[in-house]
Amino acid sequence: MFCSAIRNILKNSQNAAKYGAISPQLRNLRGQGVAQSEVQVFKSPDIIAQQNDKETEPATQDSFKEVALDFGNREAHVPSFNLAAYVNKSSTLQQFISLGVDLHSIERRKGLGQFVLQLDFEKNVKPFITFLVDQGISPDDFGRMFTKNPLLFKEDLDDLQTRVDYLKSKRFSDEARQRILTHNPYWLMFSTRRVDRRLGYFQKEFRLSGHDLRLLATREPNVVTYNMEHLRKSVFTLREEMGFSPKELSALVVRKPRLMMIPPDDLVERFSYIHQDMGLSHAQIVQCPELLASREFRLRERHEFLKLLGRAQYDPQKDMYISPKTIVEGNNFYFVRNVAKSDFETFDLFLRTR
Amino acid sequence: MALTKVYNAATAFKNLGGVLNVYKPAGMKVKHVRNAILNNICKGLNKMEQREPGKLREGRFLGTGTAADPVLHNIAFQTDQSDHVLSAGPRYLPRDLSCSTVSSLGDHTSGVLLFGINRGTGQSSSIRKSRPVRVYHITGRLGSATENHLPDSRVTMRANHRHVSADRISGLAASIQASHQRKMFELCGVDLQTQEAYELACKGLLRPADESQPVVYGIRLVHFERPHFTLELHSINETQEYLVALVHDLALELRTAAHCSQLRCVRHAHFDVRDSLLRNSWHLPGIIKNLRHQRDILRAHNQQHRVELKAIH
Q1: Which segments of the protein form a coiled coil according to its record (chain A) (predicted)?
Q2: Any CB–CB contact under 8 A between A332 and chain B?
Q3: pLDDT average, residue stretch A263-271
Q4: Pairwise CA distance, residues A163 & B14, whole Å
Q5: pLDDT band at B129 (very low <50, low <70, confident <90, very high)
Q6: Pair (B30, B147) in one structural domain
């Protein structure tokens, strides 16, 4: 049986050259196979089968043990698809795990697995951790930050210090800087010139004051490092397709910078529902940008439920006014009880008729 | 049956099987519903108590003959970090679950959509093979016909509909139903006025043998409010295209034009829209509760599913 197993392995190895890495072990196995066959030749065939088994079993066990050991060593130099294969060998990776870094999601991105594997914790990682602690970032966020952007360790520490100093010079407060660094781990990858250009773009595009610009960057730090092409497209959509005036646009963007990161098609769909079906004016939408940030089906089911109850009245001049902001607030239960002032069974039944 | 709280993901996974009754929202593809359900199940499972990472095997280090070495000895009793959730990835992935739809619904159709999950895939295929009747509520809008008979495309025709009354729609619906019943017997090759046809009819519903032909068993008007009318339709092997075309033809027969404003599947076999899982409860506890509920329904009606199929020649 053992011999046939070896034969199978050999057959496979002939078929595929990619098994080159285990060929020394195969040679080893082949040697053992020969030794075993010699044993069998040496024994006369008259001997009872049971005895033969007893003789061969220890031999096979030994060889299995050796094979297992060989495969254990193999982990160190044979390429693997996963970082998990190296975790038990590498103290850096173990440290990463104790920090809460998700190695699984790192290895799925191209080139990052290789990069992380070459890091040395003491030399490459520790200085960055001290740097981040100096910036006042809580250690709980390290795992998430390094998972998102392991390439931070490639940067020069002096550069990082310059970038933080740039933020200081632009009078971002301590809390603002902490928020920016924790919420957007990519921010520090951008050179001061590039960040400056982008902040300048927002300031010029929406005619923002320094305070508003800081507010925008702190509210949604991801906007500043977002893809410029996407940003231009959504700003075009907001201005030209939806027709917000420059003043309304700047108010909208400062209140909800995330709108610029939503795909323009979705944004237009939501806007047309809010503006045409719910009948809210531009000014009302600017008052409550959360409407544009919530998904269309959610708006639709809530608005239609209110309409069914006869409570969809968004004009503050009249009785029974319902603030548009409260429509998108909270979960369904909160909405049904406090805004629609109905019960959950009715809402369920209503949803089943759509 | 006593219910116990479960905190362990493995136990929850073991109990995750059966037929699931989901309320599919209109405008969402079946594929997207399926992915949302599977992703939510996995998200729920991964949030529960996970299996601890295993211990490193001792045998690996004994071989080197340095078991006395304190460092190696320590390693041997450490946990296997490569089995940690952070290095090996989440324990449950959508592809670990098997899922099959009993029968599909069109994009614009809302309502009951049945999934077989894990060991429920077998049940789902047996439901599919028994070819149960599906009941639809179809709302049409009189006055305008559109290119694909649905509200989201170009209007191709407008017509007056003042002459249309509830009686006329009901009458036409009844005649459509009668002609479909007659067609079934004709396809079987029996004359309607014979003993053979009588015996066939005694055995219950005459079902098609394959999925090729849509068959309508019943159609009636349930609601009429000037531009809108709602039909209740019982059928097998229907598709969304067939249903919307039926509404279009019905309107032409009434000397007017109409398109379908809403299609809703209210019942599929014994699975009613009232027990279906709404989008706001597509999470693990909701899904498991629904699976349990559908299992009771299936158990109560088990006999009906083994209907002998009658072939149409």
Answers
A1: none
A2: yes
A3: 95
A4: 52
A5: confident
A6: no
Q: Which of B61, B87, B139 to mutate to test the interface with A (most CBs of A within 10 A)?
A: B87
Give residue-wise pLDDT tens across range B5-24.
Answer: 889 999 999 999 999 999 99
pLDDT tens column, B242-300: 999 999 999 999 999 999 999 999 999 899 999 999 999 999 999 999 999 999 999 98
Backbone region of residue A218 per phi and psi (left: phi > 0; alpha: psi in -120 to 50; beta: other values): alpha
Q: Is residue B13 within 8 Å of residue B42, measured between CB atoms?
A: no
Per-residue CA distances from A61 to A239, A278, B177, B305 (Å):
76, 77, 76, 55
- In the chain, the amino acid numbered B7 is Y
Report CB contact under 8 Å: B82, A68. no
* Interchain contact, B84 vs A87, CB within 8 Å: yes
B105's CB contacts (< 8 A; 6+ apart) are B24, B30, B111, B113, B240, B265
Mean pLDDT value across chain A: 82
Strand bridging mode B258-268 / B109-117: parallel
Say what the pLDDT of residue B310 is.
Answer: 45
Residue A39 to residue A55: CA distance in whole angstroms:
9
Distance (Å) of CA B225 to CA B165, B166, B219, B232 = 10, 9, 18, 15
Residue A11 CB-density burial (10 A; 0-12 exposed, 13-18 middle, 19+ buried): exposed
How far apart, in Å, are the Cα atoms of B240 and each of A33, A207, A239, B41, B123?
A: 66, 51, 39, 29, 24
Whether B77 and B137 share a structural domain: no
Q: Does B25 touch chain A (CB under 8 A)?
A: yes
Domain ranges of chain A: 2-75, 226-287, 294-354
Half-sphere exposure for B36 (CA within 13 Å, toward CB): 17
Residues B41 and B72 in one domain: no
- Can you give the pTM of this predicted structure? 0.81
The answer to whether residues B171 and B120 belong to one domain is: no
End-to-end CA distance of chain B: 47
Looking at the 3D structure of chain B, how many domains does it have?
A: 3
State how far the Cα of A303 lies from the Cα of A307, in Å rounded to an integer.
Answer: 6
Is the pLDDT at A221 greater than 90, yes or no? Answer: yes
Q: Identify the residue among A63, A88, A105 best suited for mutation to test binding to B, counting B beta carbons within 10 A and taking the highest.
A: A88
Query: Rounded CA gap, B187 and A326, in Å?
Result: 59
CA–CA distance, A211 with A208 (Å, rounded to integer): 8
Task: Give contacts of B273 with chain A, Cβ < 8 Å.
Answer: 352
B290 found inside a domain: yes
Q: Does ipTM top 0.90?
A: no
Å between B260 CA and nearest CA of chain A:
14
- Gap between the Cα atoms of A300 and A349, Å rounded: 16
CA dihedral A62, A64, A69, A70 (to 10 degrees): 120
A68 contact residues in B (CB cutoff 8 A) = 59-60, 63
